[in-house]
Amino acid sequence: MLRELFALWRDRGSRLARSLGQDREAVSIDARHRRCRAAWEPHLAATKRLVLDAAALASGRGTAVVLGSGACLDVPVAELAGQFAEVVLVDAHHPWQARKLAKEIPNVRLVAVDVTGLAGIVRDVAKGRAALPSPVPLPDPLPGLVPDFTASVNLASQLPIPFYSRLGRRLSDEARQAFYTGIIAAHGDWLAGLPGRVCLCCDTAWERVDGENVLERRDALEGVALPPPDRTWTWVIAPRPEESPAYDRQNRVVGYLDFVAAWRGRKASEKSAAMA
Ligand SMILES: C[S@@+](CC[C@H](N)C(=O)[O-])C[C@H]1O[C@@H](n2cnc3c(N)ncnc32)[C@H](O)[C@@H]1O
């Protein structure tokens, strides 16, 4: 605990990062990774492999963008930097590990931005000065950038989380739920509209398990149904006794090598189901 407080004191984030709580989150991810390193390794390796396999399918070699890069535990930064002219790491908070990589590798650049574009609006809604946007607008976090390759890495399920406590009980359950679902759907819509190859890796379910027995399962994507993925795996994020001696916590993870095609296929089948 003391070690984490010290780490946070040394790596306090910008106003944006603090408002989304992402500097604290980075310290706790780092601490948990240290404690659960062996259990996390297959997930980190599978994510890096997915990103590199998708990157190999990109037709241009100009700009690669990684969304939700964080400490880059699951991002093959050096390999991407060897394959593209420029690698842009995008996150609300770039902890010291990412800043070190950007210093050491000349074609790696950091962009600090809220990829939902909603932090300011939610602040105003929480103060009663604005209404929640409905539908949730498409974000435009990287204006002017034309990527050849984009990877959204273990980010999608995290997007609504900072807003849970902000919006509290001010709004109806239905309005809040529609907003959280809309945030994740808008991330998918924005990714699917990008030029170049797009890769998505994200968790779809959070589970507490005892061996084969699933004690609890929660949808990680606020009701957004993803199309059939290219790859699936399980991330044992908190093997016992990390969270409890009675269960392990694990995330179900999916990966797409061509998210644009998969998401468009989903939209098309939704349309034909509605017409039938
Ligand atoms: C589960 S972590 C991903 C792990 C990270 N790739 C790593 O290897 O450490 C989710 C990341 O998404 C970032 N994030 C969450 N919400 C964000 C937002 N609205 N805009 C930008 N980044 C966000 C967090 O700061 C965090 O680094």
From TrEMBL:
Record's protein name: Class I SAM-dependent methyltransferase
